Amino acid sequence: MRIARFEAGGRVSYGLVEGDSVTPVEGDLFGSRRPAGDPVPLSSVRLLAPVVPRLMLATALNYPSHLGQNVASPRPELFVKGNNCLSNPGDPIVMPAGCERVDYEGELVVVIGRRCSRVSVEDALSYVLGYTCGNDVSARDWQRGDQQWFRGKSSDTFGPLGPWIVDGLDPTNLELRTRLNGKEVQHCNTGEMINSVAEQISFVSRVVALEPGDVIFTGTSGQPQALKPGDVVEVEVEGVGVLSNPVVADSKPMPWKDLRPDLRPPRPGR
Amino acid sequence: MRIARFEAGGRVSYGLVEGDSVTPVEGDLFGSRRPAGDPVPLSSVRLLAPVVPRLMLATALNYPSHLGQNVASPRPELFVKGNNCLSNPGDPIVMPAGCERVDYEGELVVVIGRRCSRVSVEDALSYVLGYTCGNDVSARDWQRGDQQWFRGKSSDTFGPLGPWIVDGLDPTNLELRTRLNGKEVQHCNTGEMINSVAEQISFVSRVVALEPGDVIFTGTSGQPQALKPGDVVEVEVEGVGVLSNPVVADSKPMPWKDLRPDLRPPRPGR
Questions:
Q1: Is pTM beyond 0.90 here?
Q2: Nearest residue, CB atoms, B259 vs list A147, A199, A214
């Protein structure tokens, strides 16, 4: 089953995708749903992020190929992506002014289907609604220079999600690919994860009662490259589909000038 | 004006507080509001967090007395608090199992009233709805031991907010006090902030279009102490009121056992 959220004629609906058409549904996305109209061609609607999460989490350093100088962690290393950065398929990734390097990070994203508190690793996957593609866009210089990753990971447009949610997949064995302007730049299998999807859900559920619609970006592989305006990034998860987003420059730059230069830390070597 | 959110008879409403009573309002909290009923005694309702933010941010290291070994930053150092941790006046702060030290952090919290993108420091305060009290509850060992502060700052119940929002205050000159079991343990003036409320809003607005209801916890002072079950923490902001929360132990402990001890980093000295 492929669950999409879309806008058509000014109205936002959930729908079930079959072939090249989508049938609107009403009811509870996480409970009983029923068709609420005739199928319409996918080409006639605008796909939106398939869910509006209450909580958007992401796991850092979760593929051996992405570790670099870091040591693998015996527990998932999570951070919060602000809900402001949720973005739709096709919507532009805006490179903020004052940031020198913005990278793509293609990821498998898990969508929670049922309230989920203190579940074991063994039971965790039974709380999943399905899976989608995500791009954990990352401003590297801010990620390195700031105390925490707020600007680095949660600037507006840094959380594209989609194109839809697919259920019934095995998250331990999915091919995950990213293409930059058509050229493959990331390729792994989700079985390479250091902490599995089930381990991530179980770990989070110890301190957070997860709600239906909450999502976890489950980590990226390899060494992602920098984006530039004009690029197009595609994230493809086997069995789900392709999430595609163009990259644009900031059209209204307002870089931060350090307001209190008297407080600027001394630079090394001076 | 004091704006509260409350539950009475199973119904959640916004209301305006005067003296010891609250008058329900209907309409847009951030636009035109009108009374929608008779005043009811505050003692007959249950106060809730006065707003349900789309985005909950917090500023680290923003009072000289809280810096410790850290250097003051020439820009606000922000992090995201997950929406899951939003908590109500009077609701218990739960000390998670497996965490050895949980601290209070009494803070002034600013509530955004109008959409706010790329605003200057000079204009920033015109986008404010008002102010409330917040407790940026912090699990110190997780904050230190994890890559990012997700568990340290966003475990469930770690974001009490309230008791209501007050407008018309000067955020550069408010007394801010925290009491632990009735004894004052934090006391500062918000004029001591390293980066002011206006600077924080302007800085965030460069990368996030803030929405009505978004909040920023603006930092804590001094060296907070550890909480223990049975404690009561009160945060008081001059001109706002008192946010009070009891502390309880985790009633259903499910500590994380490192699932993959083979991946545990070697300890120093071994």
A1: yes
A2: A199
